[in-house]
Amino acid sequence: MSSVFYRSALPYPVAVKAAGPYLWDSAGRRYLDGASGALVANIGQGRGEVAEAMAQAARTLAFVHGSQFSSPALEEYSARLMAFLDLPGYRFWAVSGGSEATESAIKLSRQYHAERGEPGRFRIITRRPSYHGASLGSLAASGMGARRELYAPLMNEDAWPKLAAPNPHADGAQDAEALRTLIGQLGPDTVAAFMAEPVVGASDAALAPAAGYYERIADICRESGVLFIADEVMSGMGRCGTPLAVRQWGGPGTDMLTPDIVVLGKGLAAGYAPLAGIAASPGVYAAVMGGSGAFKHGFTYAGHPVSVAAGAAVLGVLEQEDLLRRSRELGTRLLGGLRELQTRHPVMLEVRGRGLMLGVVLGDPQTGQSFQTPGTAARVGRAAFGLGLITYPGSGAVDGVRGDHLLLGPPLSLTDEQADELLEKLDAAFMGIE
Ligand SMILES: Cc1ncc(COP(=O)(O)O)c(C=O)c1O
User: Fold this and answer.
1) How many helices and strands in the chain, by DSSP H and E?
2) Which of 87, 221, 231, 424 is the least buried, fewest Cβ under 10 Å from its Cβ?
3) CA 92 to CA 281: how far, in whole Å?
4) Amino acid 138: pLDDT
């Protein structure tokens, strides 16, 4: 009998090794990871240079506590990361996972306003659907019925207003005006921040708002003194083909779109170590350090030297192998392939995505709407898994229950042949459920 507390009562295969985009289980079965775990393992597995950098860091300085020391690894990595993301003057606050990072962004935005003499600003507006994490604060911020419902009695709903999902087929700027209306209804002097995933991940497979949306969101936030937090935990670090997905709005020649706080995770250390964090604007940092002088928040393992070393090595791979360009190229190839599959499997209502963050919306081809009873995405996911392909199925995008989708996000280092293998296996998985 196992001593492991599993995520569910399902029998899990035991993964024993991985290389590139492939994993092997203890029975010798090979899986192509079409989801990089949960869009994490962005450079593929088994990279010796990353393992070496981590071992070297552990030998040199295994641990420091953030209340006592900084470290060369953290100093160098933070500077390098802010340069990669083109966030001059921003400060990097390193933590261990995406939920800790969104939680940090939420608390920092609240403290920012208090430091500036506006302690009445406490509300964090997010969208429905959305996913910002599993800790109580980040889950309260999440508009994801199934994961949130059980814990709702522990949340003060007044603090977590929700905006409707953007409509990718609408006028983007007009669509964003809903935020102005909501802030007006709540009272701008009660709102601390608006947080959104620039390209929506787990809750609504790669949904991207129309052009003009985030430009207007940023304007509305600025005009109402509300901080704009971009949760790039999934979409950032090249996953969508650019260092930050939100910069795909705004465009060259205009002021590049720059949120007050950017949240990062997943691809940051690409699964080699637990690493996430937030990048805070010079103004936000100055308000705290020039006010009370300390962020009233912290985690024991924040800025862990081994995690940070992994992050630096991963950044090196992304740059040396030009994996952001690869993300864009492969994204185009896979999107084309998915459109072809769509002609054979009408249950694939819509395919979409940015770079290598790709989504397939599933539904009833007769009505063009989501199925009344969810479960199709899970069935496709199981069929694919049985064929040796890992996908990221989800449901609930429409009303918290209905709305099936598949999220795909293989490593950015995938070859063209491996991309074709992914499409072939997905094709077979859809045939398996028909
Ligand atoms: C956009 C977004 N934010 C936050 C999180 C939470 O990250 P973690 O699971 O590392 O706590 C996730 C995880 O899927 C995410 O997709």
Assistant:
1) 13, 15
2) 424
3) 9
4) 98
Residue pLDDT, tens place only, 274-310: 999 999 999 999 999 999 999 999 999 999 999 999 9
The answer to whether residues 278 and 98 touch, using CB atoms and an 8 Å cutoff, is no
b/e code 235-260 from CB counts within 10 Å (16+ = b): bbbbbbbbbbbbbbbbeeeeeebbbb
For 375, phi then psi, to 5°, come to 140, -15
d(CA 139, CA 149): 10
What is the 8-class DSSP label of residue 12?
Answer: P
Mutate to test the pocket of ligand 1, among 36, 126, 131 (most ligand atoms within 8 A of CB): 131
Per-residue buried b or exposed e for 17-41, using 16+ beta carbons within 10 Å of the residue's own CB? ebebbbbeeeeeeebbbbbbbbbbb
Q: What is the domain partition of the chain in residue ranges? A: 15-46+322-433, 49-320
3-state secondary structure of 381: helix
Stretches where the chain sits below pLDDT 50 are none
Q: Token pair for residue 284?
A: 């936000």
How does pLDDT run across 24-70, given as a tens digit for each residue?
999 999 999 999 999 999 999 999 999 999 999 999 999 999 999 99
Q: Can you tell me the distance from the alpha carbon of 425 to that of 324, in angstroms, rounded to the nearest whole number?
A: 25
Identity of the amino acid at 412: L
3-class secondary-structure state, position 171: coil
pLDDT of residue 10: 87
* One CATH from 2.10.110.10, 3.40.50.2000, 3.90.1150.10, 3.30.830.10 for 15-46+322-433: 3.90.1150.10
Q: Among the atoms of ligand 1, which is closest to the Cα of residue 231?
A: 1
Which H or E element spans position 92? strand 91-95
List the one residue out of 230, 227, 142 whose CA is nearest residue 192.
227
- Ligand 1, residues at Cβ distance < 6 Å: 38, 97-99, 102, 131-134, 197, 201-202, 231, 233-234, 265, 276
What is the 3-state composition of the chain as percent helix, strand, coil, each rounded to the nearest 5? 40, 20, 40
Which pLDDT value is given to residue 145? 84
Residue owning the nearest CA to atom 16 of ligand 1: 234
Which residue, judged by its Cα, is nearest atom 9 of ligand 1?
98
pTM, entire model: 0.98
Span 49-320 CATH architecture: 3-Layer(aba) Sandwich (3.40)
pLDDT score at 255: 54
- Identify the residue whose C-alpha is closest to ligand 1 atom 8: 98
pLDDT score, position 115: 98
